[in-house]
Structures are given as C-alpha cells and as structure tokens.
Design a protein that fits this description.
- With 791 residues, the chain is mainly β.
- Helix content is 12%, strand content 42%.
- The strands form 13 sheets. Strands 2-8-7-4-5 form a five-stranded mixed sheet.
- A hairpin with a 4-residue loop joins β11 and β12.
Length: 791
C-alpha cells in the first residue's frame, strides 16, 4: 500500500508539474506570437463628413502600434479607398507614411454618384488579416450636376436577431447567460421584446432590449431540445429566430464585475477533477494568468480589473490539453485621459465673429494635469442641415471600435457616466466579441507565413509571370521594372515558385508609365500581369441607406454655389502640390565616366558615337551581331560578360540601342566595374538618357508590357486667403469657403501649447472645429469648438 501511495504521489507531482508547464508554455508561446506578429492600426481624420462632387476630401493618417498605441515606424505606405454600397472603389490612393503619419486628398470628379460611401485605410501588412482591422468611416457625397436617382419609396426594413451564449458554448444542464441583439439591415439596434420557446412549445425565458437593441437573459437548456425566440419589435410585426444548437457537454463561463474585482465562474458537464487555467490579455499582452482545479464541475477565478489594460481585453479558459474551451471579452475605461482644450480669444462660450475676421485658436494638451507633447490635426468647417459635427472620436476608435469587428452604435456612449453604461457595455462585449487571431495560431509549432510583407522601405509593386499557353507560373524568371524619366528608376527581381516578382520602388510618386519585361531569352514567351495592391477583402460593417429630403434643396444649392465659386476663382491655388524631396542619385551611384553628347561632334549612328569618343565601351561582333563590352581600366581589359544597358532607366538590348537615333540622346554614364544586385550580375553598366526622359520614338519589343501606374500621392497644398490688411478685406473677390481651415500637422510644445490662425470667409452661419490628437504614449483625444459668423 505504501508503494502504491508513493507511486500515486509521484505521478501526481509529475502531472502537476506537467500542467504547470502547460500554463507557462501557453504564456511563452503567446508572448512569442505577439512579438513575431506586429499589429498595426490606422486612424484617419477627414476634414468633414459631407461633400459635393467638385470638392476636395482632405485627410490625415495616424499610424500607430496596435498593441500599445504608440507611434510606430514600420510600414511606409498606407492605402486609402472610397467604396460604394457594392464595395466598388470610386477613389483610391497610396500615401507615404513618415514619422508615424501621412496626409492626402481626393478631388471628387463630376462622374461620382450621390450616395453614402465608406472610406477605409490599411497597410500592406494589414492585408494579411481580416478586413475588420482596417480603419473605416462613412461619408456622404452629393453630385449636384447629376440626378440623385433616389428610389420612389425607401427600401423595406429588414430585421434580424442574434443570440450569443456567454463564453461561446450553449451547454445542456448548465444555466447559460444569453446575450442578444436585434438590428435592421444597417446594423441599427431596435427596441424589442420576446420569449424563448422550446421544440415542445414550452416558454422557457423572456427578454427585453436595454439599449441599442441589445440585452441578455438566463435559462438552463435541456439536452436534446431545440429553441427559438419570438421577437416582437416595437410598432412592427414579430418574427422568429433560432437559438444556437445545445451541446450535450462542454464548458460554460459567467463573468461578473463587482467594483474592481472581476469574478469568473467556470462550469462544465465533466465531473472528474480537472485542472483548467485562465489567461487574460489586452491586445495580445498577457495581463493575468492562473490555474485551478475543477471541483464537482465548477471553479471560480477572481482578479483585479486594474491588472488589465485600457480598452478591450480577452479572457480565455484552457483545459489541461492547452485547448481553449471558453472565451469572453471585457472592457475597461481608461483611468487617465488626454485632455485637449481650445480657446478663441477671450470671447467666452458664445463666440460671434464677422466675415473675413482673423481667428486665433489657442490649444493646450494635458495628461493627468501635466503638459503633454501631442501630435494633432484640425479642421474648421460650416455645419448645417447637411454637414454636421463629425461623430468619430479618436480615443473611442483606438480603445473600442478598432478591436470590435461588428458595427457599434455611438461608441462614445461606452465612455460616458450613464447609469446603464456598465450593463450596456456587458451586452456589447457578449454580442460583438471577437478576436484578432485564433488560438491555433500562437499555439502552433511552426511559425505562420504571410502573403504580404510590410512595406518598411517603400511601395512594393507585385507582378505575376506566367506561360500564356498553360497559365502556369514561371518560376525563376528574371524580371525587370523601370519607370522612364530623368530619375533612373530601375528594379530587378526573380520570380518565386508561384511566378510572383516583387519590386521595392521607393520614392515613386504620381502617375507614370511603367515598363515591365523579362530577360530576353530566345525561347522565352511570358505573360506579365501587374498585381493590384489594393485589398479585395471587405468588412461586414453596413452602410446606411442614402436619402435626401426635398427641403434640403436650397442648402445643396448654397453649397454648390460656394463650391463652383471656389473652383472658379481659387482653382489654381487648389491644384498646387508639394514635390517630395527624393534622392535622384541613380541606383548604381556615381558613374565612372559621364559624357554629355552635345560636347562632342554629333554622329548619325550610335555605333559611330561609341567608336569615336567612348573608349570605355567596345563593340564586338558575336554570331553576326554587334554587342557592347565595358572596359575595366583597372585591369586593362574588357569585362567578359554582358553589361547592363539602360535607356532612360529602362533595360534595352544591344540591337535596340545601336539602332536608336543618337541625336535624341543627351547623356551617357558608364560604370566600368562589375555590378552585383542579388542574383543579378552585370559586367559594367551603360546608362543612356534622352533630353525628355521618356524614350522618344523608342521601339519596344512586342513582349514588353507598358502600364500606366499610380504611385504614391503627391501632397496637395491646402490654400486659404488671408485678410491681414484693409485692402485685402475690401477685395471684391468672392470667398465662399465652408472649410475655413485644414491643418494636418500641429504639435504642442513642452508646455503642452500650440496656436493656429485663420480667417473667416464671406459665408455666414455656424462653424465647428474638430481637433484630433495623440501623444507618444498612445493617449488619444478628440475635442470640438464652435463659433458663429455674422455680418
């Protein structure tokens, strides 16, 4: 008996040690997963929410770490799109990210239709994950030059109800708390009540919505039964909705908050003692972990909510096999807040200004009573029955909306002091709860592979090379991309096993014609297709229906007159762009020798030019064809292999170059030593440049692909007139601006202060300023101010 007891005790120790290791192992794997898989977030501040065709949408991008919300410097490109109701893009742009921020604009053409649109933004790295991670906001556009084409009658309302057992499992024989939501086709919550009926027509529970169409109720399902809910809408007909299938076994959790304590009760249908452990994390940073043993199928955990980070946290219960068996989200309002205050002179709250008045806005940022250096952006625009105050709050987005996949009505409510906010938040966490990963990702033994690499150096252009006859990928094909122009933009890549080539085209701005080609081989017959860099994944967040009341006709007309007047008189000022400071040094650096051909006698053939005064290049006939060779003067010999021949940055063949008219060539630069670029080795480089930089009258090989491609957006200059003198104020030039200021770059100093100055226009009415800001520690805030403009 003593031997048996000793063996059992030893086995118990081994089992306990193994299970302790299981908890530690999960924590370690989870931490390693977080370190390997960087999470990114983007927040976009647009100047307003309502636009007319012919106006400019201005926006600023805030680029931050998805875990701690600190500014991040990984991706260098953000993709911004405006999508219609069918997720078809009407505008697309690529914006450079510098110092954790970016800025851009869209000019809305006269071809755009009136309607509600979705503006979204993401990076290439974010495309590896669900589109629910992308930043999204709704904007409205009215085209006053086209018919609205509104439906004769508003679309019929559609309703649905969803039922979500707490923890994810609907388990028989255990009291389950069921959260629910009742929404229309646009995701808007509905006031409703109802009952739950079993397949035996027994009424087992009743429920009522609390707020935003959400609520919860409890009951104990029976094994073998099915359940449905009869939902009664306020002022509408009732409908039925099925509850989830009842599981005969499994785990159930109940999470309750009492003051600062978070109590988690775990119940299961398994009665044997079993060790389970709890892991709570905030945005993939473990905040609390504990293991306990189930007794009679139940166990409880308790920990302080202060251990969790601000915003959305996730509680997961694991069994002894490291398998997640139940999950729940929890929300924590930040204890300290970034406070941004504004002051316009000493006018108090009711600020009244005249047309063409100077306005100075003093800005102050404080965190816990101390000055905070904060990165901000500010828009000041007119508000009326069409254009209202922007509803998006930066703090709300980062701490709540960006971590919830579903649509959230009034996110700011969950940061309020309303008496029901705790209960409503609990319903939201149970109905909209989701996670940015599945647990088989951090717990897998091999590292995840991703389709899209982060663009940490610049925009990456992808291309696919295939055999046209069989549509099979062409692996190991040497592929070239070049952008003709005065700046040598030449890139080379070798396709992978899927026939994909990638070109890191840093400092590529504006719309240009790209030239793509493969290595000139006698038997090569490839097809090249440029990859669309924009994502084809879309979030499920709905767009609201679009409608325009006929009473708004005069307001639209007023906006239209202002827009057309602005474009007529200030159009030139609105089409100015800041040219980026880019390195124009060619990829091969400083050449060994440079020839300006106008300094020499001009010959009519390229062969004569090279033979007469370019000793670094020799001509040798091989298989009946003249070929160029580069001379290495250090070794006093010609290099053996082929040189790289480029014309305006585009690779060309010996034959093409020798046939070209030298009178159109302005410059020749030569590198007389071997140049190695990855798998590409060139015995010297000869770079020819035309006067215009666009290869005039050059005849391309039929296999060459020419593509118009939009690079990074050039930054448009925001313009607003100044009325500093009496003569300027007396100018008869009409000023009908409703956007008085767009200032995407504001930084408070060490004392937390900054100031901006602008002028009112000739348009009277109410104006609002919307100011977003974030500090280096990830604390964000949004504030507004308003004033009236009279004569």
């Amino acid at each position: 008996m003593k031997k048996i007891l000793s063996v059992l005790a030893f086995s118990g120790c081994v089992l306990a040690h193994a299970q302790t290791d299981n908890l530690t192992q999960v924590e370690q794997q989870f931490a390693a997963f977080g370190n390997r898989n960087v999470q990114e977030k983007l927040f976009v501040h647009t100047d307003k929410e309502f636009y007319l065709a012919g106006e400019i949408i201005w926006y600023k991008l805030y680029y931050i770490d998805g875990v701690n919300h600190h500014p991040i410097d990984l991706s260098k490109v953000a993709y911004v799109e405006i999508l219609d109701q069918n997720n078809k893009p009407v505008m697309q742009g690529k914006n450079a990210l510098k110092n954790s921020a970016g800025k851009g604009s869209f000019y809305l053409p006269s071809s755009v239709n009136s309607g509600n649109y979705k503006l979204r933004a993401y990076t290439a790295w974010m495309k590896n994950f669900d589109a629910g991670y992308f930043f999204e906001k709704n904007i409205s556009i009215v085209n006053s030059f086209k018919s609205l084409n509104l439906p004769l009658a508003p679309p019929a309302k559609k309703f649905e109800a969803g039922f979500y057992p707490e923890g994810g499992n609907f388990v028989a024989g255990i009291e389950n708390r069921i959260a629910f939501n009742v929404i229309d086709q646009y995701g808007t919550g509905q006031v409703a009540s109802g009952v739950v009926i079993s397949n035996k027509n027994d009424t087992v529970a009743s429920f009522n919505t609390l707020k935003f169409g959400m609520g919860n109720f409890t009951f104990t399902p029976a094994a073998g039964n099915t359940y449905k809910a009869v939902v009664q809408l306020e002022g509408a007909a009732s409908f039925t909705s099925d509850l989830p299938i009842v599981n005969t076994s499994g785990y159930n959790i109940r999470v309750d908050e009492q003051g600062d304590a978070v109590n988690v009760i775990v119940k299961t249908t398994f009665n044997a003692p079993e060790e389970v452990f709890l892991l709570a994390h905030t945005r993939q940073i473990t905040k609390y972990a504990e293991k306990k043993i189930l007794t009679n199928g139940a166990v409880s955990f308790s920990f302080s909510k202060s251990k969790l980070g601000d915003g959305v946290s996730q509680i997961t219960i694991f069994n002894r096999d490291q398998r997640p068996v139940a999950e729940r989200l929890l929300f924590k309002v930040p204890s300290q807040k970034l406070e941004i205050s504004t002051n316009i002179g000493s006018s108090g709250k009711n600020i009244v200004l005249k047309t063409r008045d100077a306005v100075t806005v003093d800005i102050r940022a404080d965190l816990a009573g101390k000055p905070a250096v904060t990165n901000m952006s500010l828009a000041v625009y007119q508000v009326d029955s069409l254009s209202s105050v922007a509803p998006v709050n930066m703090k709300d987005y980062l701490l709540l909306t960006s971590d919830i996949r579903g649509y959230i009505e009034s996110p700011s409510y969950y940061f309020s002091d309303d008496a029901n906010v705790k209960a409503v938040t609990e319903n939201l966490m149970m109905t909209q709860g989701w996670r940015r990963f599945t647990w088989n990702q951090p717990l897998r033994k091999t590292a995840l592979t991703y389709e899209y690499a982060p663009e940490f150096d610049g925009h990456i252009i992808g291309a696919t090379v295939t055999y046209p006859s069989k549509q099979q990928p062409a692996a190991d094909a040497k592929t070239y991309l070049a952008v003709p122009g005065p700046k040598t933009q030449y890139f080379a890549s070798v396709t992978d096993e899927n026939g994909r080539a990638y070109f890191d085209v840093r400092d590529y701005y504006g719309r240009n014609e790209m030239v793509l080609q493969t290595e000139q081989l006698p038997d090569s017959n490839y097809r090249i297709d440029v990859t669309d860099p924009f994502s084809e994944k879309y979030s499920p967040r709905p767009l609201p229906g679009f409608d325009m009341n006929s009473s708004l006709k005069s307001v639209v007309l007023d906006h239209n007159i202002g827009m057309q007047t602005l474009n007529a008189y200030l159009g030139d000022s609105l089409t100015r762009f800041d040219l980026p400071a880019i390195d124009t040094t060619p990829f091969f650096g400083k050449p060994t020798k440079r020839y300006m051909l106008d300094d020499y006698v001009r010959f009519t053939t390229m062969e004569e030019v090279l033979r007469e005064y370019v000793p670094e290049i020799g001509l040798k006939k091989t298989n009946g064809q003249l070929r160029l060779r580069i001379a290495d003067w250090d070794m006093v010999r010609y290099l053996d292999g082929d040189p790289l021949l480029i014309f305006d940055g585009v690779p060309v063949t010996h034959e093409q170059l020798l046939k070209y008219d030298p009178l159109k060539v302005r410059k020749l630069e030569i590198v007389t030593n071997r140049y190695i670029n990855g798998k590409f080795v060139y015995d010297g480089i000869a770079s020819f440049s035309s006067y215009s930089g666009n290869m005039p009258e050059f005849v391309f090989d039929p296999k060459t692909v020419l593509v118009d491609y939009e690079g990074l957006q050039l930054e448009r200059e925001y313009y607003s007139p100044k009325y500093e003198t009496e003569a300027q104020r007396a100018s008869r030039l009409a000023d009908f601006r409703d956007l008085l200021l767009w200032k995407p770059e504001i930084t408070t100093d060490a004392s937390g202060k900054s100031a901006v100055k602008f002028y009112t226009s000739d348009k009277k009415g109410k104006y609002v300023g919307v100011l977003h800001g974030i500090d280096a520690e990830g604390n964000a805030s949004t504030t507004t101010f308003s004033f009236e403009v009279t004569k």
